[in-house]
Design brief:
mainly beta; 3-stranded antiparallel β-sheet; 7 strands; about 40% strand; rod-shaped
């Protein structure tokens, strides 16, 4: 399975569900040869055969990444430990992405 993660790289497309996060910014090429301006991936019609032009290629302008989120707490031995679940006294950490 192809991972679509490279920005400014053109990928061929043969149809199917949206291959990237819905908030990823894309530019697409249609089967009639026209390019379309960039917009979020969920703004394009990925399913073909519905009376609309079919997408045959796309490129990622800005890849959307979900921030990492976790909790940090002391384990009773003086060590700080990260966990994906909340524990009493834990500090919530959420990564900031630009």
């Amino acid at each position: 399975m192809t991972e679509y993660t490279k920005e400014n790289h053109w990928y061929g497309w043969n149809g199917g569900e949206c291959p990237v996060h819905p908030e990823t910014s894309l530019e697409v090429v249609f089967d009639d040869g026209n390019n379309a301006a960039q917009r979020p991936a969920d703004g394009w019609g990925w399913a073909s055969g519905h009376g609309i032009r079919s997408i045959i290629a796309f490129r990622i302008i800005k890849l959307h990444r979900e921030p990492r989120e976790f909790w940090v707490f002391e384990n009773g031995h003086g060590d700080l430990v990260a966990s994906r679940t909340w524990r009493n006294g834990a500090i919530h950490v959420r990564e900031v992405l630009q």
